[in-house]
Structures are given as C-alpha cells and as structure tokens.
Amino acid sequence: MHPRWLIYLLLVMLTGCGSTARAVRLDTGRDAPFVFTPRSSHQSVEMTADEFKEAVEAVAHIVRPSSSPQEAARRLFEVESRSGSYLYEPNSRRVTPMGPGEHLEGELPTADVELTRAYLRWCERTARPGDCLRLLVEGPTVTGDGRYALSMALAQGVVLEEMMDAFKDMANPEAMLTTVLWTWTTYMILLAVPEPFSKGLAAAMTLTLIAYVGVDTFWNLIVGFKRLVEAADRATTFDELRTEGERYGKVMGRKAARAFAMLATAAIGNSAAGLAKQVPTFPGAAQAMVQAESQMGVRFAAIGGVESVAISAEAVTISLAPGAVAMTAGGSSAKALPTGAKAWGSFSGFKKAMGPAGAGKEWHHIVEQTPSNVNRFGAQAVHNTENIVPLDKGLHTRLSGLYSSIRRIITASGNLTVRQWLSTQSLEAQREFGLLAIENVTKGIW
C-alpha cells in the first residue's frame, strides 16, 4: 500500500476518534503498566517573546549549525534518506546532480520548476537570496521533504522572525535557522507514520513537548501535520503551500510553535540525557513540570530515562527505564517510583554543583526546605534536582508570600499559615500542593 494511503487511513481513524479521551500508559518494565487519565485543566505553557528569544539564543551558542542540515537531522533521529544527492550553486542558481541518474531542468515537471522558482523569489523577498532553507541540496526542485520543510517555515510566521532575531549575533544566522527548521521538520516526519513512535532523543522531545502543550494538543498537532503532508504532496504552486502552511500555523499556535522551536534548537547534536539536563532551565519549565504530572503522571526527572513514546488515537504509551520517576493514577495519595534524581545533603551543596538558577531567576524548593521537612524526610529528599527548580524572581516572591499568609480557602483555618498547615502533611502531599501552587500563582488564581 502506498504510504500516502496509509497516512489517509490513519487520519480517518484518528479523526473518527477525536472525542475519545486519551489515556497515558506508563510502562516501567515492572509488572503491568500504570494507566493514567490526564487532568482536563490544562493550558499550554506560555512564554513571552523576550523569554523565547533569550532561551533560543542561549542554546544556539552552544550548538553548531550544519552545512547539510537535512542530512544532520536524519542522523540525529536515525531517519533514512529517501532521495538522491544534488549540488545547488547559489550564485548561478544551477542545480548539478551528484552521482548517476542525472536530470536536466528541462526534463523536470513544469509545476515543480515553477514552484521552485517561486520559492527562490520568496527567499529574495525575505532578504536571504539563493536556496535560503537548503531545500535544493538533494534535488533540483522543491519536492518531498523539502515541501514539508517549506510549509513548516511558512507556518511559523512571527516565530520564524523571533528565531532570526535570536540568531542575529551569530556568525551564520541563516545556517542556524535552517538547521533548526530541518531538525523540527524531520522530527515531525518521524511522527507522521502509522503509528507515531519515537525513541531516544525524539522520545525525550516528545515527553517534553507534551508537558508544554498537553496530550490532546500534541496529538492534534500530529494529525494536523499528517494533513499538511497530504496537502503539500498535492500542491502544484507556491501559494498552495503557503495556504497549507499558514493553516497549520493556526493549528499550532504561537505557544506550541515557540516550544517546538526551542526544543528543536536544543536537540541539535544532543542526546536524550543532554536534553534532560537543559529542560529545567527553559522558560515555563516550572509550569511544564506541573503539567508533566497532571497530563502524563510523569515527573520531569524522567525525561532522561524515557526509552520510547508511542501515540495512538486512544492512548500515549511511555516506556521508562527502570528507576525513572512516574506517578501512579491511584488517587490523591499517589506514590512515586524510586527516583534517579541527583541529591545533596544541603542546599549550599546543590548550588555549588548546579550553579546559578539563571538570569532573573531563583532556585525554588517545591517541598519547602523547612527544618521540619528536613528532619522528617531527610536532606536528600528536599535538596535534589527533582524538588528544586528555577523560577522567575517575581514568581518566587509571590510563592513565598503565599506560604506565609493565612488562606482560609486553602487551609480551612483562620489561624494557621499555609506553611504551618502544610508542615504536618506527607512528602507526596506537600509536593502535589507545591506543584499546584506554582500553577495557580502563575495563573493569578492564588
């Protein structure tokens, strides 16, 4: 069966089950998998344009753009090549096939040639003359994966401009942009086959993206990309690609687009473990941490331990390495599996090892570092990479004020502060409240 028909059939299956609530299956290789139902109170993590550009710029300075971004993205995600190799000369605009099976431009379909010329004119209009997205490295015209990459570039809109602004001080900002674009597109292509499955670095990206946008939104983005693939294959003009790209951009939205772009940048030349170390420093990481638990039953410390993620119309199945952290769905007193988080005997030891929280940020203990908590649970249960997260100073100050205040609506007491009321509860209950506090203070509910 032709791959296009496989995609079409999967679309019918997925859209037909659009009203079905998707469960999350957590498979740790021990006994039966846990089945977790995501909470419905989900909002995509929001980051400002300045936060996004600052994060992308910081990550971009520690990665190296590739002169062959499509091939580099294939190697990164272990995707096989599906086309020949061609050489494009920007100055003369000549396309020279590399290897056997040479094709002259005159032999190519007229529609493909015209679309390619329109693409090159678009590059000129955006002040990046030539093959600005490196779509013609492996073929004389914009076809196949190149069409998907172009559609994704057109879908990003303002976010694309924000990325270029973040890369402006680099030696070759255009090379950085195309490397991110091909990383992003190749990752989506990996998820656009029946049934979506990711492993290694791609699985870590999937887990993080779901934490940022939610299970249902992520699932809808996959369905939307499959439709984009179908439309891009049918398109005969640049304007048709633009229309489909802009339509997908609306499905994605700016919040998800920023999260995608940030993670695609961080993924370049990285590993699952390397990405896991960077994620807690990203803008919105605190809210994403909350939603990782509410949407998937997984703690952020599990990102580096995820082995694979499979997505169907009914469920998201997450396979975690032994020792990774997950939450069961067994009620409000959920228990944690053994954790692989790094821990210290004091907060000063943590700060010495981890360094500053970041510009404009402060380290925050989800379960507070009160003497009572340290005595009851042990120092390492409090001073660890799973419990201490970077927060904006303003948010950290508001949280501290909340814990010091008397809130009858929270504690049902007119005498106890939130901190006093919380101090008698279990570690799990304090953590659950701490995550909820971050979420509600961020949203202005508390």
From TrEMBL:
Organism for this UniProt entry: Corallococcus praedator
Protein name, as recorded: Lipoprotein
